[in-house]
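One such shown below:
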Amino acid sequence: MLAGCAAGPNFERPGAPPADAIARPSAAGPVATPGVVGGQAQQFAEGADLSGDWWILFHSRELDTLIDRALKNNHDLKAAQAALAAARETTLAQRGAFYPQVSAGLAASRQRQSGQLAPTPNNNAFVYSLYTPQLSIAYAPDVFGLTRRTVENARAQALATRFQTIAAHLTLTTNVANTAIQIAALRAQIDATRQLADIAAHAVEVVKYQQAKGYASGLDLAAQEAQLAQAQAALPPLVKQEEQQQHLLAVLTGQYPGRAPNAPFDLSGLTLPASLPLSLPSTLVEQRPDVRQAEANLHAASAQVGIAAANRLPNLQLTASAGSTALTIGQVFGPGSAFWAIGGQLTQPIFQGGALLHQERSAKAALVQAGEQYQSTVLGAFQNVADTLTAIDRDAEALKASAAAEQAARTTLELSQRQYRDGYASYLALLSAEQGYQQARLNLVQAQANRFVDTVALFQALGGGWWNRPELAEAAHGH
């Protein structure tokens, strides 16, 4: 009977999103670019499950090692795990209110009674000792559900913390993967940029020689020196980014920047996963840790309304105590020394200056706020998936175009080399072809990196497969 008297609303999980919440990609899958790193064919598998160790799908031992190291040593993840432990203990502590509170005590005193008053002990002594062992019991029946709503609120907050920990785990693994990919791409770009600068430097020397012979003007030399300066100016920002990514990777793996791992990352050492899972809308909201955290926050806000409502209702407190009082320790629990008491107290708030009423209204407004935040989080999750699917398709097309441009530039360079050997092309024409090839190579490297980053982003957008990692799945269920 009491179970049905809990004040406030009973929480109901939000409904599932519509079936067309995610725009389905083409059945053919992203465009493939055979023979190019990152150009492997990919197919979407609707309803397929995602591995909890999704990074092993890239078949990179270096990447596997880095992520394992990060999961063991990252301090942000350890802090999130400690917060989860604290939230779990807080919930267990709140559950103690369901049970009677029992305490035992022993009081001992030596005192002298005023001679103006009748002596307290029955032996008429004015100086005496008192020894009082006592057992006390207090219990507050949860008549209107205050305790139940308080525990419900604590459980919901702990669940929100659990999914925050899962989100930290997912963010860490994806950050490590993306950082490793960016380092590999930046190293390839730095290599191509250095070759561009070398080509430009050779071109400057050729023009200087031609100017000395009267075949080139000062304007030609200035133009070539400007190209050299541009190539040289492009190098420091790339080196800076590569070093900063190394520092980030060190911190992600729990190390100081000075101890950054110098793993030989190369995009050719990564394999693009051939099968890409695609969750149903109803499944996606169960898999996304941010959506589950928003739902837990909504549940906590609902329970808080019940707490505020119960605070305006009567509160019943039952107490009982029993013990013994004696003048000597040997007489404790002897004949005539026992005492006991039992009682109850019913308290009804009458006037609090409107505080309780406005607290309940505030809790209801916070519930509406949490509901809107949940809906916003759901929409953001589906936008994240839609944007990632679009990126996968468009970046696959961009890679195909970049590969074609790189192949054309390579062919141009090979023809220019033959013509130069046969005397039909100038050295400057050869350098120009080499410059065009290196620029096309730069574009291709970035396009290749985008394909790997897009796949990582899809795994993250789908929740990262945490439900297939026992330690995370148990945390999500509160074990």
Q: What stands out?
A: The radius of gyration is 37 Å.
